[in-house]
Amino acid sequence: MPIAEKDVRWVSPTKLSLMDRLYLPSIFSGLGTTMKHAFSKKVTQQFPEERPQLPQHYRGVHRLNRDEEGRVKCVACYMCSTACPARCIDIVAAPSPWKDREKYPEIFVIDELRCIYCGMCEQACPCDAIELTTLFDLTGLSREEMMFDKEKLLSVFDQTVKDGTDPVRTTSGKLSVASEPKV
To answer: Rounded to whole angstroms, how far apart are CA atoms 16 and 106?
Structure first.
């Protein structure tokens, strides 16, 4: 069925003035923005000398937590790798040598280059075995150096405990892992 003539509305193009056709208002607007930034107060930090003030709930490098006996807390339930939208967590489970759990991660690897630091792994973990720390300055010369295995993740735990920079989200509240600040 064709469209009725009364339902059709014809639109005519906007008439531009001479100034608009020469793009002068746009040029002056761009120059104004440039001048505003050129004479505004600079906020550049001299990074290695000045450390940035990070927000309280900053999500940086991962760590695998240890339990009271120094063992890895992870029970290899695959919840973190299932919840990860970037699919950057690989776990290989093995039978546990300890009596209090069924299995433990024989291999636990996080690809830090692929990770989007969303915190879904931390929220999905039922035993608070994985956390995101406030460490942000990780570097590597190759992709292999950015693949954090179990030993490297446990060493991040040891370093953050030694430095006293535990993540804020170490206690879970009613709303989520990040809801209750550490007391």
So the answer is: 70
